[in-house]
From TrEMBL, chain A:
Organism whose genome encodes this protein: Actinophytocola algeriensis
Protein name, UniProt field: Branched-chain amino acid transport system permease protein
Gene Ontology cellular-component terms listed: plasma membrane
Membrane topology: Multi-pass membrane protein
Signal peptide as annotated in the record: none
Gene Ontology MF: a single term: branched-chain amino acid transmembrane transporter activity
Residues forming coiled coils: none
TrEMBL record, chain B:
Taxonomic path: Bacteria, Bacillati, Actinomycetota, Actinomycetes, Pseudonocardiales
GO molecular function: ATP binding; ATP hydrolysis activity; L-isoleucine transmembrane transporter activity; L-phenylalanine transmembrane transporter activity; L-valine transmembrane transporter activity
Protein name: Branched-chain amino acid transport system ATP-binding protein
GO cellular component: plasma membrane
Classification via Pfam families: ABC_tran (PF00005)
Annotated ranges, domain ABC transporter: 4-236
Matches recorded under InterPro entries: AAA+_ATPase (IPR003593), ABC_AA/LPS_Transport (IPR051120), ABC_transporter-like_ATP-bd (IPR003439), P-loop_NTPase (IPR027417)
């Protein structure tokens, strides 16, 4: 098959232009993220920053499965909760929080594969429905498990301040912020490395057309399982960090539907299937959420859900590809 | 040497036999036309060879291996490439990304898959569309991309499901020359087609189905003299 079959008229493939816009975007966002806590000095603004970065990590995990592979999950709070509970238990047992992250992430990955094994057999929306159901089941089982603190929840034991203990001063949250930023950078690079080669192509092919994907040799089920494993692991790491920040976990803070919705919504608002989606979406959604919580109601639960609904409608109407595409469109218009 | 052999293959959907007891062989390096009136079972037979459907009975062997009931991705790995009658391109990807994805079947690294994709892209005259999202292409170009994508998997056998229907005369001529070039590379081709002039000129061998049954195997010249074929097309 070495014979070449180019007809005389065959035009060669033009080289792709260097994506300067993307590099510039990365530089601008990186500078903004680094500078933020130096400018935003209040505890309220710093909490928004830490929470936004944590949720961006969780949503980066969701994005691999939902954005790239097209398998929409409404139950990622389960993996986030796995991180929160798992780290709390192990830290109580004397582990460093950092050391708990990988084994707990592995556990979350196994959990994800267990959910995927039966549901990925079926085509269509069965996986989405199953994640919704599992989220609800966990929500009603958790309050009955004594060793997970039942309805009272668990507190992270008091640890000395220091990086190894992932415990810092709460008066100034700058250290939490930069730790979260570092973790977000690592998670993003991990996701990028995971997706840049064959796996990324295969997942996008599955999302676009799974029948055509299998016809070009993609083992569809196996690749969906890779995606759910990586996705669950990253989201669990976000949970591990989050519990060290809030030092407390109970069923409603770790596993409820509005958390699952937020993780998914962040990626969708920012741009599903784009590396930019989670970080852009997280800042918008978390800032909105914290402001509405503070100024409009005591607990904010209902307001959250109303706001999420409004955002979904807004994204669908304005640009289903999310904020990142709005920015790209703007950039192209300016360049022209 | 026989590359593909279909032996007593039957597919039943409930009480309906879409394909019943069909047997034929495809020698390596040939172009075979699979024809028959609407509903004759051509597409079902294609699906079974490509692994998309499991035969109710019978055996399909490819390159000496029994591939009956294999999954589509296993058939693709063995060397069966296919196009779809209703185009199924990866719409959000560019043309080159479509081809790179297919090339990944035999090339692990992105660089070597990409190199294959670029070669196929130029060979199939898709160079000027390389960086266009596949969803924005016209029907004829999508069909060309389908063929190119199957080629990028480096198949030994190519199953073409109506790649010529719905094309303008110019597009048809281009597509025919492309198929001839692919054949010149040594790739065995089985094509389902409705455009009879094309089938007659392109395929030295025909397999004719009617109501799921094999009614004729042989050259186009003999086919037009065969009473069963005439009955099937013109009505007995």
């Amino acid at each position: 098959m070495t014979a070449t079959l180019a007809p005389p008229s065959a035009r060669p493939v033009p080289a792709r232009k260097v994506p300067w816009g993307r590099y510039a975007g990365i530089a601008v966002v990186a500078v903004l993220l680094v500078v933020y806590p130096l400018v935003a000095k209040t505890s309220f603004l710093q909490t928004i920053g830490v929470t936004a970065l944590t949720m961006a990590i969780a949503s980066t995990g969701w994005n691999i499965l939902g954005g790239y592979a097209g398998q929409i999950s409404f139950g990622h709070a389960v993996f986030f909760g796995t991180g929160m509970y798992g780290t709390t238990l192990l830290v109580t047992g004397g582990w460093s929080p950092w050391l708990t992250m990988m084994p707990i992430a592995l556990l979350a990955a196994v959990l994800g594969v267990l959910i995927g094994l039966p549901t990925f057999r079926l085509r269509g929306h069965y996986f989405s429905i199953a994640t919704l159901a599992i989220g609800m089941m966990v929500m009603s089982i958790l309050p009955n498990i004594q060793w997970l603190g039942a309805t009272d929840g668990l507190s992270v034991p008091f640890l000395d301040e220091g990086f190894w203990n992932l415990t810092f001063s709460l008066r100034d949250k700058t250290e939490y912020y930069y730790t979260a930023l570092g973790l977000f950078a690592v998670a993003t690079v991990a996701a990028w490395l995971f997706l840049r080669g064959r796996i990324g192509s295969y997942l996008e092919a599955i999302r676009d057309d799974d029948v055509a994907a299998s016809a070009v040799g993609v083992p569809v089920r196996r690749y969906k399982l890779y995606a759910v494993a990586m996705s669950a692991a990253l989201t669990s790491i976000a949970g591990s960090f989050h519990v060290m920040f809030v030092t407390f976990v109970d069923p409603s803070s770790s596993s409820d539907l509005s958390l699952s919705t937020a993780i998914a919504l962040i990626a969708v608002v920012g741009g599903a299937g784009s590396m930019w989606g989670p970080i852009l979406g997280a800042w918008l959604v978390i800032a909105l959420q914290e402001y509405t919580r503070t100024y409009l109601s005591a607990t904010g639960r209902t307001i959250d859900l109303m706001m999420f609904g409004a955002l979904i409608i807004l994204v669908a109407v304005v640009d289903p590809r999310g904020l990142v595409n709005l920015v790209k469109r703007g950039y192209r218009r300016v360049r022209r | 040497m026989t590359l593909l052999s279909v032996d007593g293959v039957t597919k039943r959907f409930g009480g309906l036999a879409a394909v019943s007891d069909v047997s034929f062989e495809v020698p390596e390096g040939t172009i075979t036309g699979l024809i028959g009136p609407n509903g004759a079972g051509k597409s079902t037979l294609f699906s079974m060879i490509a692994g998309a459907q499991r035969p109710t009975a019978g055996r399909i062997s490819f390159a000496g291996k029994d591939i009956t009931g294999w999954q589509p991705h296993e058939a693709a790995r063995a060397g069966v490439g296919r196009t779809f009658q209703l185009m199924r391109v990866f719409g959000s990807m560019t043309v080159l990304e479509n081809l790179t994805t297919a090339a990944h079947l035999r090339h692990r690294t992105k660089a070597s898959a990409r190199a294959v994709a670029e070669r196929v892209c130029a060979e199939t005259n898709l160079g000027s569309y390389a960086h266009r999202p596949a969803a924005t292409l016209t029907g004829a170009t999508k069909k060309r991309l389908e063929l190119a994508r199957a080629l990028a998997t480096s198949p030994r056998l190519l199953l073409l499901d109506e790649v010529l229907s719905g094309l303008t005369p110019t597009e048809t001529a281009e597509a025919i020359s492309l198929i001839e070039q692919v054949h010149a590379q040594g790739i065995t081709i089985v094509l389902v087609e409705h455009v009879m002039q094309v089938v007659m000129s392109l395929c030295p061998r025909l397999v004719v189905l009617d109501f799921g049954k094999l009614i004729f195997t042989g050259s186009p010249d003999d086919a037009v003299k065969d009473q069963a074929v005439l009955d099937a097309y013109l009505g007995a």
